[in-house]
């Protein structure tokens, strides 16, 4: 795929690509920088699910003349997963519908499958691909890179690395992926949210799961949490990161005793 894409770039004046993941390593296979410096126009849309995309690649390409790079921030738990490459040439278009991400592995060493279409821009299948890319590139979930998003993305990457380092083969990763999507979406939905780590012992952790609530004795601590804040439960006694979640409602006071006073040395509403 990498060799074919590089060959097609030789006489293309425009490249539009939408991929799930993008890595700087791909530039060792397809030299987009040299092509863009010679006048090529690039539109690049990359997904940010699982925080696998190198934002440094997008920043690097964005500095080139005629290049526009964006990220697709999934509005829910779905993964942005296309691999679509469209090359405009003088008298025709080439479209790749592929399983290859813009990574060194996706373009060279992985086992991938790609379909290459070539024909005039008026061809119905070529037009469908072009229209699909336009819808993705101008979608409400598509954003330009901002310093705020980059900082939040790197925080989420660090949290993911910590969680994966402590995960076991039996640990379900779906909750982690869901939490990541919610965390990455936070800057789009208003004030950027920081990931929280809530520390509890195994007994209280089970109480939290049963009641779907996280309590504090001091109101000022509870008031520091906001709707949309993503949190990770760290359970003591060697359990590590055990669950991920999000605050979905305003804080409230409940005077019913959730924990017996004898266990905590005081009244705990």
Automatic annotation (TrEMBL):
Residues 76-106 form the PLD phosphodiesterase domain. GO terms for molecular function: catalytic activity. GO terms for biological process: phosphorus metabolic process. Gene3D superfamilies: Endonuclease Chain A, ph1033 like domains. It comes from the Bacteria. This is Transposase, IS4 family protein. It comes from Chondromyces apiculatus DSM 436.
């Amino acid at each position: 795929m990498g060799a074919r894409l590089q060959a097609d770039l030789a006489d293309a004046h425009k490249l539009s690509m939408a991929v799930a993941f993008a890595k700087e390593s791909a530039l060792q296979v397809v030299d987009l920088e040299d092509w863009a410096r010679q006048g090529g126009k690039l539109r690049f849309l990359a997904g940010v699910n699982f925080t696998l995309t190198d934002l440094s690649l997008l920043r690097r390409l964005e500095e080139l003349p005629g290049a526009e790079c964006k990220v697709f921030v999934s509005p829910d738990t779905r993964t942005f997963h296309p691999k679509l490459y469209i090359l405009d040439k003088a008298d025709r278009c080439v479209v790749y519908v592929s399983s290859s991400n813009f990574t060194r592995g996706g373009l060279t060493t992985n086992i991938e499958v790609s379909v290459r279409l070539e024909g005039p821009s008026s061809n119905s299948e070529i037009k469908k691909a072009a229209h699909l890319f336009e819808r993705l590139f101008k979608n409400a979930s598509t954003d330009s890179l901002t310093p705020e998003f980059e900082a939040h993305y790197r925080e989420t990457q660090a949290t993911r690395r910590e969680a994966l380092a402590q995960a076991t083969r039996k640990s379900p990763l779906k909750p982690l992926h869901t939490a990541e999507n919610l965390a990455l979406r936070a800057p789009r939905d208003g004030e950027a949210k920081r990931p929280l780590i809530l520390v509890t012992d195994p007994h209280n952790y089970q109480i939290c799961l049963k009641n779907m609530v996280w309590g504090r004795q001091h109101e000022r601590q509870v008031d520091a949490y906001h709707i949309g804040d993503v949190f990770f439960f760290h359970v003591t006694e060697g359990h590590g990161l055990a669950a991920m979640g999000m605050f979905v409602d305003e804080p409230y006071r409940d005077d019913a005793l959730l924990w017996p006073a004898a266990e905590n040395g005081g009244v705990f509403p």
